[in-house]
Amino acid sequence: xxxxxxxxxxxxxxxxxxxxxxNYALFMGLALACTxxxxxxxxxxxxxWIVSQDWDSLSTTxxxxxxxxxxxxxxxxFINILPAILAQTAAHxxxxxxxxxxx
Length: 103
What we know:
Elements: H1 2-19, H2 25-51, H3 55-95
Helix pairs in contact: 1-2, 1-3, 2-3
């Protein structure tokens, strides 16, 4: 749960720094890393249930959280990478002003 909370905090900081024009790359990397560590934590929980043969936990929890994990990883990845995409698009537009005016 700690890594999920850290990922949210770093995601917010990523966007705050991006919107203020500051270098946001560190927070983007930290948010993505915390998202990956959160998924490793979930994997660890499942492996512990297998080792202890806690089949009830596996059968009730794993199917219900699978979609949530996919959605959260995809969402956090997109939300954190989006500032880099927007900055790249803005830089590309600034370097090629003739693309804005077809004449």
